[in-house]
Amino acid sequence: MTWTAKDIVVKPITAQAANACIKEHHYSGKVVHNSQLHLGVFLGDRLHGAMQFGPSMSKHRSMALVRDTAWNNFIELNRMAFGPALPRNSESRALGVALRLIKKNYPHIEWVLSFADGTQCGDGTIYRAAGFVLTGIKKNSSIIRLPDGSVAAKITYGKGKHILERGGAARAPEGSTNLPGFQLRYVYFLNPAARERLTVPVLPFSAIAEAGAKMYRGKAG
Prior knowledge:
- The protein is about 20% helix and about 30% strand.
- By secondary structure, it is α+β, with helices and mostly antiparallel strands.
- The chain is globular, with a radius of gyration of 18 Å.
- About 30% of the residues are buried.
C-alpha cells in the first residue's frame, strides 16, 4: 500500500510513548520534560511521529510577544519528530491537524510559539508551510559541541554567556567549542485578533537568506 500525507492520523498519546518517539527520531535525542500535550502521528495503527506542547521555557519573556496575553493564553511547540516511514508532506499536514485540535479543545489558547534550530536542523520550512509568521532571527550562542562530538546546551554546565571561558558549577569539558548558527522564532495565531496585539514586527521570509540563516536538514545554505 502506498501511503500519502492524507492517510496520517494525529491523536493524543501518553507522555511515555511521545518521549520514546522523540528520543528515537529527534536529532537531539532529548525531550522537554515540562511538555503537557502529547500528540502522536500514526499510519494505520503504528506510531511514526510525535509533537509535544507545553509552557515556554522563558514564559514571562514569551508572554510579552503578544500584548495582554495571560499565562495560559499561549503554548509552545517544544518538540516535533517524524520517522522516515512517513510520506512526503506529513510534517506540515500533521502540524496543521495539531493546531486545529488545539483550537477546538483548548479555546483559551490564542497563539502557539515555536523555534527553528538553524544551528543543527533547519530554518523552519514546516512552520512557514503551516501558516506561522516569522518574528525573530538571532545568532544562537547557546549550543556547544563536546570533545566526543555530541552536542549540548551551555546551560547544562552552568550560567552565563561565557560559560566556555569561565565555567560554572560543572565546567564544560576541555576542548568544547561553540557551535555557530541561528535560532528563528515563529508564531501561529489560533485567534486572528491576537495578531493585532503582536509587539514585535513580522519579518518577511526573505530575511532568513539575508541574515545568512538558511538551513535545511542540518545543511546551511
